[in-house]
Amino acid sequence: MQTGICTNIGNCSKADSSEKLQVPVGGPFVCPECGRELSRVGGPSGNAGRPAWVVPVVAALLLIAAGFGIWRFASGRSSSPPSPEPSPVPLASALPSGTQTILRLSGSNTIGSKLAPALVEAFLQAQGAQNLQRVPGAKDEVSIVATLSGQSSPGAIEIKAHGSKTAFEDLGSSKADIGMASRKIKPEEKTSLASLGDLTSRASENVLGLDGLAIIVNQSNPLEALPTDKIRDIFTGHITDWSQVSGSPGPIQIYARDDKSGTFDTFKELVLHGVDLASSAKRFEDSAELSNAVADDVKGIGFIGMPYILNAKALKVSEGGSVPLKPTVLTVRTEDYRLSRRLYLYTAATPQNTWVRKFIEFSLSDAGQAVVDKTGFVGQALTNIPTPEPVAATNLPPDYQRLIEGAERLPFNFRFKTGSDELDNKASRDLGRLVQFLSDRSYQGRRVILLGFADSKGNPASNLELSRRRARSVERELQSEGIRVAVAEGFGQELPVAGNDTEEGREKNRRVEIWLGK
């Protein structure tokens, strides 16, 4: 047996009690409760039942081995022992001498694991930097070091990916210049950071890309789709056997991200709705580790960002009678997939570090969005548009069906602030992308069709009028840029893409679709 302790304090009872755990040699050296890799320690390792002579004999053998080692060393034939595993090194001390940290990113592991390092490298190359290298620090920390143009000493951009919560903590304590978050800032976080400006304003809140929160199972699981209420019942422990959701009989094993994760925060908001996660869930800080654990467990189910589906199987998701959809580039790009989410970069409204604005503008440019696509997330640039899938909904309103006949849907929607026809921060940026796209000669002469929708909260007649106002609001913006709109119509609360019983669902239903006719 090998002995270790779990260090996942606050998320695992084994870690909280400092219990020494024994794991068979050759097996995975992980905590049986949360799945975190154990920290190796000395101490008891299964002595019960051993003959009394074992310990002294082993001690004698060790003394003989030690004496032999001394003789080998004295005779000049000693071989070097294997180096112990190095302790985590703080990023600052791991950097080459004279290196200046020019920018610090902190927050979401979903962004910081693969996307942020790739984005930083592309950004530095665009700035003319050379000799790029990744310098690892402690777990989930890395610096990208490079020789900057016109500088004699190297510069570094620091990335610490310990969860979206730490994005706002580190912004508040001046330990970060940019906060990476896989969820929207919470009202209490906005209030606590008021000294940095309004972090929900366009100056501070930047949508880096899109992601689909996938519900994953083992490839052999026969289940293909689940509604969000069943997903909630599984992850809160109300459904405990696969036979209760038309699967093969057997106990359900739940896998989940840790409490600091923005992925978990998003899951709580979109699925759990205030109900606690089942205490039996195995918790993970690393997305890939969680996905691999589910892929290896025929009874497992978990939630993960779309790039981390890996060898698992993603289920279709529905809500409130909407059509079940899988997390794909198209369904996530339009944000019609119920568990789609936005990935954010937050900054002070007026950052003092000049590198902040440079990095943000690069990240939102077509070049930056190409990196988002390459790392498995969904970028927002209107280039290489995927072929739209056929409209899957049934019982389409006759006027809607007539307007979209023979037309091609662009793969994003304009969305709005609650109860108004004012574009949200992402839509404001998307408007510029659409103008640039429609200004291309190959699209000139195409009929632009704007179709607005509202949620079902309030009076149906008022919702119909609001959906028309939203379509006409986009029409005015496009016309001011010289883009002629053929149709701007509203359909009220019809054709919901999500349930209207939650704010998240209603937000998805408040939209304007963009179609191009012949």
Furnish the topology, listing elements before pairings:
Layout: E1 2-5, H1 13-16, E2 20-23, E3 39-40, H2 54-74, H3 91-94, E4 100-107, H4 109-112, H5 115-126, E5 130-136, E6 141-147, E7 155-160, H6 164-172, E8 178-181, H7 187-192, E9 205-217, E10 225-227, H8 228-235, E11 253-257, H9 262-272, E12 282-284, H10 287-295, E13 300-305, E14 313-314, E15 316-318, H11 329-333, E16 340-346, H12 354-364, H13 366-374, H14 398-404, E17 408-415, H15 425-438, E18 447-453, H16 460-480, E19 487-490, H17 503-509, E20 511-517
Parallel strand pairs: 4-7, 4-8, 10-15, 11-12, 11-13, 18-19
Antiparallel strand pairs: 1-2, 1-3, 5-6, 6-7, 8-16, 9-13, 9-14, 9-16, 17-20, 18-20
Account of the 3D structure:
The protein is α/β, with parallel strands linked by helices. It has helices at 13-16, 54-74, 91-94, 109-112, 115-126, 164-172, 187-192, 228-235, 262-272, 287-295, 329-333, 354-364, 366-374, 398-404, 425-438, 460-480, 503-509; strands spanning 2-5, 20-23, 39-40, 100-107, 130-136, 141-147, 155-160, 178-181, 205-217, 225-227, 253-257, 282-284, 300-305, 313-314, 316-318, 340-346, 408-415, 447-453, 487-490, 511-517. Strands 4, 5, 6, 7, 8, 9, 11, 12, 13, 14 and 16 form an 11-stranded mixed β-sheet that branches. It has a 4-stranded mixed β-sheet with strand order 17-20-18-19, sandwiched between helices. The chain is globular.
